[in-house]
Amino acid sequence: RLADDHHRPRYHVSPPENWLNDPNGLLEWNGTYHVFYQYNPAGPHHGTIHWGHAVSDDLVTWEDRPIALTPSPDGPDRDGCWSGCAVDVDGTAKIVYTGGHGDVQLPCLATATDDDLVDWEKHPENPVIRSVPVDPPLRSTEHWRAEFRDHNVWREDGIWHHLIGSGIEDGGGTALLYTSEGDEMVDWTYRGPILTGEPDRDGAMWECPELLDLGEKQLLHVSNYEEVRYYLGEYADRSFDVERDGLLDHGAFYAPQSLRDDGDDRWLTWGWIKPDRSPAAQWDAGWAGTLSLPRRIDLDDEGRLRQRPAAELTALREDRAYADSPTLADERRELAFAGRSFELRAEIRLEDAAECGLAVRRSPDGEEETLLRYTRESDLVVDRAASTTDHRASSDPISMPVTPVDESLSLRLFVDGSVLEVFANERHCLSTRIFPTRSDSDGVSLYAADGRAVFEDLECWTMGSAWPAVGDSSPERN
Ligand code: DQQ
Question: Of 267, 295, 312, which marks where a domain is finished?
Fold first, then answer.
C-alpha cells in the first residue's frame, strides 16, 4: 500500500509507516547525522509516542534504524517518550526527553550504549527533575497538571543549561531555564524564565523552545500550538532581550529542532510538516506526517534571519529537465516538464502584471492544481482551492508576506508527493501539504494576469530518492 502511494515523499524524511511528529535529538555522531522523531508504531495517529530513528552520512540519503526509545510500562515515561534533545557529553551521547505518566510530565534521561546510537539505557533515577517549579505558577490543562515539557540542552562556560517549555497560569508561553554543574545531568537547579510572551500575541504555551547562538545575535524559537514564532536578540545573564520577531514558517511547519554541525560551523533545522488532512484519510494511507528538508539558519548582512535549504540537497537533483527565462504577457503557459518530486527555482519580476505565479501538480484539464500566486501586495499565496478533489484534505489558502514587490522574488520550490516547501528570498518560508488524487496531476504551468511578468533563470530538476538502500529491509518504503 505505501509503496504505491504517490503522496509519499521521495526525498523527505518520513516514517516507514504510521505516525511521525516532532524531530528530536538531532546529532552528528562520528560523521553520521542522526535524526530521531516522535513516532507512534501503533498507527497513523498520535498515541503512545516512541522515538523513531533515521541516519544519513550526507544529509541526502537516509536509512531507517530501529525504534530508539520505547515507553517503559512501569516507568515515568509509561504514557509516552515525548520531545527532547541529544547532547554529546564528552564522548557519550545522552538524550533528555519528556516522560509522560498519567497527568504528569517530567524530564527523563537516557544514555547511548553503542556508537551507532541504536541502544539507549534509561537512567535509574528518572525523572531527573521530580516536580515542576512553583514560581511562576504553571498552566494546567484538562490533560496535564502542569504543562512542562520539551528540552533544549547546551554547555556554556562549562555548565549545562536546559530550557523547558511551559506557560504561566493566566499568562503567556515561557521558556524555563535550569542549570547543572555535573556531567551526570541529574542535579538540575531552577533559574526561572528566560523569556515570557504575551498570551494574545505569542501564545499561552510554548512547546519545544530552542535557543541558537547565531554569532552576532541569538535566536529563540518556540512552537505555540498554532505557529513557530522566533525572537532575535541578545541572550545574556539568563535573560533574552528581543530585538525582532517573526514566524519561522507560514505553513504547517511545527516543533522544529536544530543540529549543530561544527565542521561546517552551521545550524541545520528540521521541522515537522503536519498531515493537514482528516484522521480517516490518514488511516486509509497508513502513514502521516513528514519532516521538512534540513534548512540552514543564520543571519544575513543586515542582521536579519536567513533560511536556506541545506547546500547538500542539490545532490538530489537528477535531470535538469527544464531551463528558460520566459516573459509572459497576460497568458498561461504549460511547461514541457512534469513531476511529482522536483525542485523549481526562478527569479520572478512582476513588471506591470496585476499578479503572476505558477501551478504545480496540475492535471491537463486543470481540475486539480495548486497555485502559487505572487501579488502586488507583496504576498505569496499558496492557493489550495483546487489542489485535490478529496474533501478530506485541507483546501485553505496560506499566504506569507515577502520582500517588496519592486525587488525580484527569488523562489526555490520543493514539491515531493504531498509536500510543498517554498523558500522566498532566502528569508520567508512556507511548508505545507497537498493531496492531488489524479495520477496525471503532475504538470507545471506559469501565468501572468493583466500585464507582463518575467520568470528569469527558471530551472526545474526531477529529484532522486533519499531512501536508495531500501528494499530488503523495509519493502514498504517507496
Ligand atoms: N509534541 C510532543 C511534545 C511537544 C509536541 C508530543 C509538539 O513533547 O510539546 O508528541 O508538537
Answer: 312
